[in-house]
């Protein structure tokens, strides 16, 4: 009976982890009013072991400068911030980052191109 319970628990944990990775992340923080002119590339993040890959697609006519920020789980592992990459109208850009060991947190920042 305990093997079945352990297998079921592992299966549920795996499904929840995979479902979280496939969720798109919000482009505008909650609580901020939506502006009259839409802005911001939609980004999808995938963490595989110690590597992070992000694809950002900008459907709007104004360019978005996106940056990847990776916070590593280990205190001795170096966190990284990428240089801004311009995602022009109808353009998709790819950003990558990594840690030596586990990834703790990942986020993308957006800025209007000047």
Automatic annotation (TrEMBL):
Signal peptide as annotated in the record: 1-21
Annotated keywords: Signal
The name this protein goes by in its record: Secreted protein
Protein source organism: Streptomyces afghaniensis 772
